[in-house]
Amino acid sequence: SSKMESITDILHQLFHTAICAAFPDITDPPVVIAVAASNPKFGDYQCNSAMPIANIYKQSGKKVTPRNLAQKILDNLPSHPMVEKCEIAGPGFINIFLNRDYAVKKLQAIFQNGVQPPTVERKKIIIDFSSPNIAKEMHVGHLRSTIIGETIARLLEFLNFEVHRINHIGDWGTQFGMLIAHLQDRFPDHLEKMPPISDLQSFYKEAKERFDEDEEFKKRAYDSVVKLQSFEPKHIKAWKLICDVSRKEFQKIYDRLDITLKERGESFYQTRTEKIVKELEEAGFLENDDGRKIMWGDESTTVPFTIVKSDGGFTYDSSDMAAIKHRLQEEKADWVIYVVDSGQATHFQILFACAKKAGILDPKKHRVDFVGFGVVLGEDKKKFKTRSGDSIRLVDLLDKGLEKALDKLKEKGRDKVLTPDELKRAQESVAYGCIKYADLSHNRNHEYIFSFDKMLEDKGNTAVYLLYAFTRIRSIARTANFTPEKIKELSKKENISLEHEKEWKLGKVLLRFPDEILKTLNDLYPHHICEYVYEIATTFTEFYDSCYCVEKDSSGDIVKAEATAMIMEKCFHILGLKPVEKM
Ligand code: ARG
């Protein structure tokens, strides 16, 4: 086929066939494929199945040596154009050497078809990410969800899944009671003309203070919640108005960071929540607990969901039950992904368990994932806050990023080389790129320290290093006056050499693209792609330093540089990095 394919998948199939034929008496034999260590002697990939198979035989009292088993595997291995040869080494490792002509053909395919995704079965996927709360701060935790969610959505879209990006905003909590009551007092004419609330944050603070101090106000706030929840038109109007102010603020962040989302907040599920609560009740899943109605998950969960509060109100738990039902049963999604901070891991564990119990989630049919992430810390390793102890506003953070990125570019003297327009584009690319990349390149389970100085470094696995590396690689062809058409033409001829050790190393890294994509699809850890694209950049540099030379006919090298750039560009797109032509 004229497409890049997953090397490990192909090897897995080949060795699975061989192992099953060699050892028909073992059911489900282990097939262990790994990328070989960088010493070329050990081949390019390895099959390490002989040892575990020997153990299986030993357990049943048979005397075997892994080396002999390895030989039996090779005797049964079907031939494939991708595999040049195999060798047995050490106690029974099988070293696999890839065929270079095959590799050349796969690189050529990139120029004919572009960088294509590996083939996967099409699925409908709902991804719930960002999901801030109205009138409350959209904080760095939501920023992490936004960045990680956007990248996972882009990865899934690249793989041609049907992806629905859902913003599950908190727009229906009890906080609206005091907000509406405060709005009525502060802006009595709000139903006629839009009140000038620019800072919802301090509006919220004012309302909260009154709520805590003034009994009469508190009572009115409670009344307002009841009226809102029974959809009283004036209250609905006031509620919409408050949501609009928040929505505009959120959208500013999304626009700057290139985030696409469809809003479907908690309020969307209100009538569905009423319905599902009734269903759960009738099916006997609810238990009375001191006036609350609770539902237990399974053995793995130690706390129940609160489905109905003692005052009769619904909760975050009940609206998530309604939402998962809507997603799996009404929308008929095959897969639902929730990108939410790890603090909510238990909530989602209970949600999935309760949904299974209620017959909403069928593990044989559906996949659900909780994509958690650790907290963002300040440079003092404490919770990320401003000096005065307030949480940091995201707009201020992005502005700070722009400022720091410009400093960095000036430090490199770029302001003297670039036009003002180019400088601005480079500034935005660096600022937003470094914020996203710092987040994505850390294992999402870990907490990470937010430091502009660290993320703006131009050495190591950083956005700045990668953006520069990419620009340099792209400029190789431009400097040599090679147009894309010319490169495409050249790529058809058999002049992409992969003979030199460094050329081969580069070729093999590029060929791993489908594997890296599938690995990330499998476990939803975007840092795999960051590590991969960094490896591409460093491997390219090694190749360039030892092979590229202006005097010789370098057309084959230019083709390799362009293939490298094309794959990097695809990774950048998934990671939300926007390279610029000049920086
Ligand atoms: N609004 C919630 C929060 O800020 C996150 C919602 C996540 N999505 C969900 N379906 N529960 O904590």
UniProtKB/TrEMBL annotation:
Domain called Arginyl tRNA synthetase N-terminal: residue spans: 9-98
Keywords from the UniProt entry: Aminoacyl-tRNA synthetase, ATP-binding, Cytoplasm, Ligase, Nucleotide-binding, Protein biosynthesis
Pfam families xrefs: Arg_tRNA_synt_N, DALR_1, tRNA-synt_1d
UniProt-listed GO biological process terms: arginyl-tRNA aminoacylation
Catalytic reaction list: tRNA(Arg) + L-arginine + ATP = L-arginyl-tRNA(Arg) + AMP + diphosphate
GO function term, MF aspect, one: ATP binding
Entries under SUPFAM superfamilies matching the protein: Anticodon-binding domain of a subclass of class I aminoacyl-tRNA synthetases (SSF47323), Arginyl-tRNA synthetase (ArgRS), N-terminal 'additional' domain (SSF55190), Nucleotidylyl transferase (SSF52374)
DALR anticodon binding domain mapped to chain residues: 466-583
EC category: ligase
Cited Gene3D superfamilies: Arginyl tRNA synthetase N-terminal domain, HUPs, Isoleucyl-tRNA Synthetase, Domain 1
Subcellular location: Cytoplasm, Cytosol
Listed InterPro entries: aa-tRNA-synth_I_CS, Arg-tRNA-ligase, Arg-tRNA-synth_N, Arg-tRNA-synth_N_sf, ArgRS_core, DALR_anticod-bd, Rossmann-like_a/b/a_fold, tRNAsynth_Ia_anticodon-bd
SMART domains: Arg_tRNA_synt_N, DALR_1
EC number: 6.1.1.19
GO CC aspect terms: aminoacyl-tRNA synthetase multienzyme complex; cytosol
PANTHER family: ARGININE--TRNA LIGASE, CYTOPLASMIC, ARGINYL-TRNA SYNTHETASE
Family classification: Belongs to the class-I aminoacyl-tRNA synthetase family.
NCBIfam families recorded: argS (TIGR00456)
Protein name as it appears in the record: Probable arginine--tRNA ligase, cytoplasmic
Species per Swiss-Prot/TrEMBL record: Acanthoscelides obtectus (Bean weevil)
